[in-house]
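pasting for the record
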Amino acid sequence: MTPAAGPSKTPFYFKTQLTLVLLTGLKARNLVELREQLAVVSESSVYYHTHHYLEQHQLLTPEPPNDFAYWVVQVLQEDRVGEALAAIDIVRFNTLAALRQAILAELDAFLAKKPLLRESPPGEEFQFLRSVLFSLPTREQASNLSEFRECLTRVSTSSLYYHVFSGRLRRPLGVNDFSDWLTVCLGESELARRIDQLDPYTYTMEGLRRRVIELVDERLKAPTADAPA
């Protein structure tokens, strides 16, 4: 394991995020309409319906189903396709476009069997919403691994969510912000790999914080780790 060569010239600036939720005006009464609308809604709508539960319900684990699966099971009572939608592992997808296609594929597979469509009761249609994300700076920044560790103990769960979940959907695609900085700026490729291999959807936000700190602590205690600057 090659240690980082001292402080980074590019500090890691911790940010946080605020989310504004907006109505799209699109709704679905059955699976055909759900499929049709899902194919055309913005990616910000796909993001909202597959990620918002994770951000808002930080104490729940394992991960709850996405909104599509929940509505299909609870409202349409189509358990089979609902379970297939709930089983989609969103951590595998580096883009929202790919995630959208995976959901559409499950709906297409079910609809190809020409099932008798069930309609939602009046007032229980699927309402498509979308997220508008705002990133905000915090006071926390780190130039080395020790500072990074200390910042992790202080930042909000919204900041963790921004850098781990939202970060995977920014470039470089599929890599959280922590792992990207650790690799590029500190040369800590092994630590970055271990953090990136964590499945964040199986942790609470506080559980994820603790696990990342544990990995950083292991690295700081390693004989080859740099002493704090």
